Amino acid sequence: MQAEGSKGISKSAVAAAGAAFLLLAGGCGEPEAPESRAAAAPVRVIAEPITFERERTRVEAVGTSRALRSIELFPAASGEVVAVNFESGQLVRAGDVLVELDSREQKLAVELARVQLKDAERLYARYEATGSSGAVLPTEIDAAATRVEAARIELDRAQVALDDRYIKAPFDGHVDVTDVDPGDRIDTGTAITTLDDRTSLLVSFDVPEVMVGELDMGDDVSVTAWNRTSTEFAGSVVEIGSRINPNTRTFNVRATVGNDDDALRPGMSFRVAVDVAGREYAVVAETAVKWGANGAYIWLVREGRAERVPVNIIQRRQGRALIDADLGTGDDVVVEGVQRLRDGSEVDYERSGFARREPTRPSGIRSAAH
What is residue 189's three-state secondary structure? Predict the structure, then answer.
């Protein structure tokens, strides 16, 4: 009897312990209700509106300059030099006589042609005055008129020969040194000097063929002379080559650079930089871009809920990133508070304008050797 009582007490104790455990478990489950309600509350984040900008690639190359207009002067006739009217580096104006050749014979030829013209004009006037009387045949009058025109042509020819004895500046510019001195005999193959209009310079540089179609006339460029590393000069594209060099796989581009202060010289080399605008992409703060097992992604706020969107990073700029994704101008991207977000989470957010800050220098650089 005592043994059976002991077994009964043991079963009662087990039942009581089970009941106590259930009560304890039920008691521990009661606090989960407030946590569930808290999880359903909107997640507070900071978001910003999506904006769009063009991708920019910086092309850098070495360029060589030449004057806007540059010529080498040669005489149009042979003869003896009687005067050199310029000094090296002098600024001359269009029409200024730079070199004079002996012109005595040409001046006499002009005077003779002028006399012959006057004589032909007098004879023609006399014949025409008597033409109505029949004393002079019409054929004689026509021949006299022809002689007038021929004499006028001879005068013009003599004047051209005289003008050729003076080498003049065809435009405003600076002359270079000369090896011609008074007393020298020169011919049409003798170089007198060079003349440069350096009010602006043309800088030629080579661009990789991958940039074909990316550069446009008028695009801004910046050039820096190697002896002026701290000074940049602004310019613009004025010529784009139509052929690709098969050896270097580049094409030639020319930009004009102002030289109002005459600080630059033709023939100088420059470091040239061009920022090329590409396709348009969405721009977001770098803090908005996160990484997962499948790559980069961002969190968008659409209709008050979080949505995870995969993206491809196109270009990084200081504090910002250009991304390729299916985005619209009305979307907002989460920049702070993403740690607690899940797909479909309800969000409560305020906006910031981080992505609308002024763009900085692009990080992508392509170089081309001149």
Answer: coil
Give the distance from CA 299 to its chain's centroid: 37
Give the integer Cα–Cα distance in Å for 295 and 136. 107
Give me 363's structure tokens.
């990080």
Query: 312 — phi, psi (to 5°)?
Result: -115, 130
Render pLDDT for 106-124 as a digit per residue (tens, 0 to 9).
Answer: 999 999 999 999 999 999 9
Distance between CA 285 and CA 297 in Å, rounded?
A: 13
Helices 104-129 and 138-163: crossing angle in degrees, nearest 10, is 160
Amino acid found at 147:
R
Q: Is 290 helix (H, G, I), strand (E, B) or coil?
A: strand
pLDDT in tens, 179-214: 999 999 999 999 999 999 999 999 999 999 888 888
State the Cα torsion 250-272-54-325 to the nearest 10°. Answer: 60
Q: What domains are there in the chain, each with its CATH number?
A: 43-55+279-368 (2.40.420.20), 59-67+198-278 (2.40.30.170), 75-101+165-191 (2.40.50.100), 103-163 (1.10.287.470)
256, β-bridge pairs: 202, 236
Alpha-carbon gap, residue 173 to 195, rounded angstroms: 6
- Separation of CA 235 from chain center: 7
Q: Quickly count helices (H) and strands (E) in the chain.
A: 4, 21
Which residues 6+ apart lie within 8 Å of 150 measured at CB?
120
Cβ-based neighbours of 21, under 8 Å, separated by 6 or more: none
Print burial letters for 312-330: b (CB count within 10 Å at least 16), e (below 16). ebbbebeebbbbebebeee
For Cα atoms 261, 264, 266, give the angle at the middle one, nearest 5 degrees: 135
**Separation CA 335–CA 325 (nearest Å):** 17
Q: What sign does the CA torsion over 120, 122, 123, 128 have?
A: positive
3-class secondary-structure state, position 354: helix
Phi/psi class of residue 313: alpha, beta or left (left: φ > 0; alpha: ψ in -120 to 50)? Answer: beta
- Structure tokens given for 310: 């995969």
